[in-house]
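Worked example

This section walks through a single chain of length 362. The input is the sequence exactly as stored; nothing has been trimmed or padded.
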Amino acid sequence: MAPLSSPHADARGLLHRLLLVSSAGVLCVSLVYFLLGCCDSDVSEKRDAAGASTRFPSADWLHPRNGSRAEKPCASPSAPGGSSGPGTTGTPGLDGDGAGREWTASRRLPQALIIGVKKGGTRALLEFLRLHPDVRALGSEPHFFDRHYARGLGWYRSLMPKALDGQIVMEKTPRYFVAAETPARIHSMSREIKLIVVVRDPVTRAISDYTQIISKTPDIPSFESLTFKNRTSGQIDSQWSPIWIGLYAKHLERWLAYFPLSQIHFVHGERLISDPAGELGRVQDFLGLQRIITDKHFYFNKTKGFPCLKKPEGSSKPHCLGKTKGRAHPKIDPEVIQRLRDFYYPHNLKFYQLVGQDFGWQ
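Given that input, the structure is written out below as tokens.
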């Protein structure tokens, strides 16, 4: 007959079994929490990575043509589109082993401005300068200092293309040269900024300006009638915009009140057409750039009467300025042209004296 167990022994056994089950349960729960914690950490890391990729998308914008369109945030150096494209060939830090330097690119306020003059050749100069790998130029005219100044420098900076250290950021707005308020505003942004003015025979410039006006509003009066306050008396209407812009000395005096002549470079508009490489060489020197843009980059288009940019080998047609450039001028009464030359003569002489250069306009 089996001996009866003691009630105390049964209680101890039951308690021992409960302790074993509880310990195992604690271990299981701990293990589950540990595993869930690892998974959650991994998910968080992936979510963070996804978030980062949302903020910094990979796309084909890594090598846009200098300032040709709005820039997007930096992509990973291994992102698609990392190969050098047209207009950025040889750009430091954007190809080869230096691709990672794109992470250091940032939007900066411009260090140089093309401030004038309208119908002088500013678009041609900007397009030519954008060939240089150390120039990052905004393609459109922002009109910040004359029309949008109230938006602030932060807004202005946001328009600029991203640039690496050593690259020059610039934009062009020809109206700056003649707008009375712009010298002081630009000076308040930067006292060291470099200013470029493309000037052209003021008589030819006025006719070109009028040609652009009639292309948009063909019903306006003739150039001859708008030139004079009174055709009979022969008094020139110097307040008419196409004529007023050509009073270069008058406008330049405002700039010289804020900037020394050494910070202003004048591009000869006629020579920019006949010898673009020579003019570009002097501009590169002024900006402190290596002379990379040379005569090998240009060919003269006899139809348009303007130099065009040669495309790299294997590309399609060379790049010429748009249809709005090189329009045929209307035939103007020679007597009116001579009256204008007489009118501008003393103004041109004063301009030559201020600049220290004779542009040879008749």
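What to look for: Confidence is low (pLDDT under 50) at residues 32-99.
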